[in-house]
Amino acid sequence: MKKKLIIKIGTSTLTAGTNRISFAVIESLARQIVELKKDYEIVIVSSGAIATARQFVEISGYQKRVDSKQAMAAIGQTKLMELYDGIFRTFGLNIAQILLTYRDFENPVAIENTRNTINRLWQVDYIPIVNENDTVSIEEIMLGDNDKLSALVATIIDANLLVLVSDIDGIFNQNPHLHSDAKLIAEVTDLESIMNFIEEKESTLGTGGMSSKIHAAEICMTNSVEMWIVNGQRANYIIKALHNEIPFTRFKTEKVKK
Ligand SMILES: Nc1ncnc2c1ncn2[C@@H]1O[C@H](COP(=O)(O)OP(=O)(O)O)[C@@H](O)[C@H]1O
Ligand SMILES: N[C@@H](CCC(=O)OP(=O)(O)O)C(=O)O
């Protein structure tokens, strides 16, 4: 049986630090997935709806007003999926869209329905791409991060591994953007031991930063899902992390799944 892998890719990685979605980033993801599909069933959790919309329209006040952000997300989501579809198709990969909110994870019926949909999509060889349903829920666009959402998805489908693709190699003993001598932590088994390492710098994008990744790790560790933070700026980052060819942070759980 194939293992289950969730890949979370955020706005900063998708835009490669610019204000446009990078086709090269989506291509690199697709190329890796072609290889990964031999051993893994895959779910992508992708942000980027608002960033995609910005290439077409700027609804006034969208940086501050939540309803403007929601409208931007609604416009950008279809275009983001078009981008994924166009690029993934050239690699022979099929995609499907799933939009969820936190509330869905509190409802056993919704959990069961989501699980059934994902399993059926895998059976017919489609890759589910999840984002938050920003129309009905505003937690993520207020806090600006899909890390926790991806941990919840990983938990309900009993994933073997969640990979958070970030703009950094992993968690360091200090924020490396502020301290040049910061050292990467390769393995975390106890979250308490790393709490003091988080040192958010002021972010204009208002993202969840490292704190939301720790929160995601907490959900994963409680539910025996291994979680990695991997640097999306490195070539072939998932394949190389799997072969231990690049530095990254691994949040270990005690229970190893078959
Ligand atoms: N101890 C730490 N180790 C690594 N990064 C840290 C640490 N403390 C704070 N950070 C910040 O967290 C950022 C990564 O989170 P985030 O910007 O949300 O990434 P992404 O957009 O890829 O999800 C880093 O770029 C860094 O500025
Ligand atoms: N759901 C929204 C916002 C989510 C968001 O910004 O998350 P992230 O890129 O992980 O910080 C979107 O797709 O634009």
From TrEMBL:
<keyword id="KW-0963">Cytoplasm</keyword>
<feature type="binding site">
    <location>
        <position position="8"/>
    </location>
    <ligand>
        <name>ATP</name>
    </ligand>
</feature>
<feature type="binding site">
    <location>
        <position position="146"/>
    </location>
    <ligand>
        <name>substrate</name>
    </ligand>
</feature>
<comment type="function">
    <text>Catalyzes the transfer of a phosphate group to glutamate to form L-glutamate 5-phosphate.</text>
</comment>
<keyword id="KW-0028">Amino-acid biosynthesis</keyword>
<dbReference type="InterPro" id="IPR036393">
    <property type="entry name" value="AceGlu_kinase-like_sf"/>
</dbReference>
<comment type="similarity">
    <text>Belongs to the glutamate 5-kinase family.</text>
</comment>
<keyword id="KW-0808">Transferase</keyword>
<keyword id="KW-0067">ATP-binding</keyword>
<feature type="binding site">
    <location>
        <position position="134"/>
    </location>
    <ligand>
        <name>substrate</name>
    </ligand>
</feature>
<dbReference type="InterPro" id="IPR041739">
    <property type="entry name" value="G5K_ProB"/>
</dbReference>
<feature type="domain" description="Aspartate/glutamate/uridylate kinase">
    <location>
        <begin position="3"/>
        <end position="231"/>
    </location>
</feature>
<feature type="binding site">
    <location>
        <begin position="166"/>
        <end position="167"/>
    </location>
    <ligand>
        <name>ATP</name>
    </ligand>
</feature>
<dbReference type="GO" id="GO:0055129">
    <property type="term" value="P:L-proline biosynthetic process"/>
</dbReference>
<dbReference type="GO" id="GO:0005524">
    <property type="term" value="F:ATP binding"/>
</dbReference>
<dbReference type="InterPro" id="IPR019797">
    <property type="entry name" value="Glutamate_5-kinase_CS"/>
</dbReference>
<dbReference type="InterPro" id="IPR001057">
    <property type="entry name" value="Glu/AcGlu_kinase"/>
</dbReference>
<dbReference type="InterPro" id="IPR011529">
    <property type="entry name" value="Glu_5kinase"/>
</dbReference>
<feature type="binding site">
    <location>
        <position position="47"/>
    </location>
    <ligand>
        <name>substrate</name>
    </ligand>
</feature>
<dbReference type="GO" id="GO:0005829">
    <property type="term" value="C:cytosol"/>
</dbReference>
<feature type="binding site">
    <location>
        <begin position="207"/>
        <end position="213"/>
    </location>
    <ligand>
        <name>ATP</name>
    </ligand>
</feature>
<dbReference type="Pfam" id="PF00696">
    <property type="entry name" value="AA_kinase"/>
</dbReference>
<keyword id="KW-0547">Nucleotide-binding</keyword>
<comment type="pathway">
    <text>Amino-acid biosynthesis; L-proline biosynthesis; L-glutamate 5-semialdehyde from L-glutamate: step 1/2.</text>
</comment>
<dbReference type="GO" id="GO:0004349">
    <property type="term" value="F:glutamate 5-kinase activity"/>
</dbReference>
<dbReference type="InterPro" id="IPR001048">
    <property type="entry name" value="Asp/Glu/Uridylate_kinase"/>
</dbReference>
<protein>
    <recommendedName>
        <fullName>Glutamate 5-kinase</fullName>
        <ecNumber>2.7.2.11</ecNumber>
    </recommendedName>
</protein>
<dbReference type="InterPro" id="IPR005715">
    <property type="entry name" value="Glu_5kinase/COase_Synthase"/>
</dbReference>
<keyword id="KW-0418">Kinase</keyword>
<keyword id="KW-0641">Proline biosynthesis</keyword>
